[in-house]
Design brief:
7-stranded mixed sheet, 6-stranded mixed sheet, alpha+beta, about 500 residues, 15 helices, FAD/NAD(P)-binding domain, 22 strands
């Protein structure tokens, strides 16, 4: 029997790059391992941040809880607002609108989800649109919001309100920086000009700054954004390009004046060669136009964006260029890429912050010794591949399942060949409305059902077990759910009223 040998523990972590990815990483590691590990973060004010209004998914509340962040303080400090889902306009056809809401749809009965019963009731002309049976999708367009009250009955929709956040990404990074530095993280100002590797395994030993200073560590987190200085340039990990399925490769971002109450949802409006986002904050509204340079020009994209703002633009549009896809490995040797350094999926479903969070969580569970065992790397990379690919498929769904024929862009995405994994989901849903979540993929049944129906994809039938329920009982179920949802939404305050009462930020002139 082989005698176990003591492994050298990690004593130092260098986070290369700031922004949301860098400061989320530094804050989490210093919170969980701060007493035994020195954490240093290197960033350059000269490089700056990709600072736009940011939208999230509900998972962020778990990250905030890990850091023991008070929600009201977080929302105030980031000029934030709340998000019940995403409103998609003009995606299936021009004039169409639906909300992909968080939370559940209706109430399941037996082994079948509610939407199966709804499919039969709808076919019999006894049901409204699927959006009428979810608290989030009813409340969002009405501008209603509240967090789950502590005294809500357990079986009430108000007891399980699922929500996320909108916030200013630059303010969020500053907020996390203050917390991380209070936990012992050392920040070093400087631009990385060289990366030094050594040993038989080619580990990164240090990064050199313009000042000549070397930052050494046992483990390096690459948070350098699209530059991917460590995992891409230094270690040479190849990038898998997914532009064939997600052809948008540019974006313009611009804030505008706030002209009304912030809506409790993100808005995504399809345009002739891409789509436009709208993210409402307390002090302004974030906007952007994601588009394909293959199908339109930068000037045309800017005109569309600026002509479709709620209020006066507060800056010139900031151009961004990107390639959708991911590195073939996000952990190689003693370097782990977090955020844009490892891959990019356009923000159509607000997954950027989630993918940062997921990468950090995965690192926590697989935290290595200084030798960075290859077995841990393999598990990390396999799980990351699965997660990115499943989110990729969900994004492709929005483009491919459409009836739009009004531009070359929409004709391309409607007719393109899609990954087999996505085609299997579509075929299963078309057969009888079913969806099976594949392991731990991020988006579950509620999300897929809402988007497939919202995009105009309708099943040929429903699960045969639905017919075992008497028609009167089925209709009573559907009617009861709609009544309960509507009555509970009526109890919710306006989104702006909730913010004013609980977490209003100080407005500066």
């Amino acid at each position: 029997m082989r005698e176990q040998q003591a492994e050298r523990p990690i004593r130092s972590v260098a986070v290369v790059g700031g922004g949301s990815a860098g400061w989320m990483s530094a804050a989490a590691i210093s919170k969980m391992f701060g007493r035994g590990i020195d954490v240093v973060l290197v960033e350059s004010e000269e490089i700056g941040l990709i600072g736009v209004g940011e939208a999230t998914v509900p998972h962020l509340s778990a990250f905030n809880a890990l850091l023991e962040i008070d929600e009201a303080e977080f929302v105030r400090q980031t000029q934030g607002s709340f998000k019940l889902g995403i409103q998609f306009n003009d995606w299936g056809r021009i004039g169409d609108s639906y909300v992909h809401g968080f939370g559940s749809i209706g109430r399941d009965l037996g082994l079948l989800p509610f939407h199966q019963y709804w499919l039969k009731a709808r076919a019999e002309g006894r049901a409204k649109d699927i959006s009428a049976y979810s608290l989030n999708t009813v409340a969002a367009p009405l501008g209603k919001f509240m967090a789950a009250p502590s005294d809500a009955p357990p079986n009430s929709p108000l007891a399980e309100i699922a929500y996320a956040y909108h916030f200013d990404a630059v303010l969020y990074a500053r907020f996390l920086r203050r917390r991380a530095e209070a936990q012992g993280v050392k920040r070093v100002e400087g631009k990385v000009v060289a990366v030094y590797r050594g040993g038989t395994r080619g580990f990164v030993e240090s990064v050199q700054l313009e000042s000549g200073e070397h930052i050494r560590a046992d483990l390096f987190l690459d948070c350098t954004g699209f530059r991917s200085l460590l995992i891409g340039e230094a270690l040479g990990i190849d990038f898998d390009d997914w532009t064939q399925w997600l052809p948008c490769d540019r974006a313009l971002a611009v804030p505008c004046e706030k002209v009304g109450p912030p809506t409790p949802y993100t808005r995504s409006t399809a345009r002739e060669a891409g789509w436009q986002w709208r993210i409402p904050l307390q002090h302004r509204t974030g906007n952007g136009h994601v588009y394909s340079s293959r199908f339109t020009t930068d000037d045309r994209a800017a005109d569309i964006l600026l002509n479709n703002l709620d209020g006066k633009a507060l800056a010139d549009p900031k151009p961004l260029r990107f390639t959708t896809g991911k590195r073939r490995k996000l952990w190689d040797r003693n370097v782990i890429a977090i955020g844009l350094a490892g891959g990019f999926l356009e923000p159509l479903e607000s997954t950027a912050i989630y993918l940062i969070q997921a990468g950090i969580n995965r690192l926590m569970h697989l935290f290595p010794n200084a030798d960075c065992d290859v077995a841990l790397q393999n598990v990390y990379n396999e799980q990351t591949d699965f997660e990115y690919e499943r989110i990729r498929d969900f994004l492709i769904l929005h483009y491919h399942v459409t009836q739009r024929t009004d531009s070359d862009f929409w004709n391309y995405v409607r007719t393109m060949t899609i990954p087999d994994s996505l085609q299997h989901h579509i075929d299963l849903f078309v057969a009888d409305g079913q969806f099976f979540r594949n392991g731990t993929e991020m988006f579950g049944l509620t999300s897929w059902v809402q988007v497939m129906l919202g995009q105009g994809l309708h099943p040929r039938s429903y699960h045969p077990a639905v017919d075992w329920v008497a028609s009167a009982d089925l209709h009573a179920l559907v009617d009861h759910v709609e009544t309960v949802v509507r009555s509970n939404v009526s109890l919710m305050p306006a989104h702006e009223q909730f913010i004013a009462r609980c977490c209003a930020a100080q407005q500066r002139a």
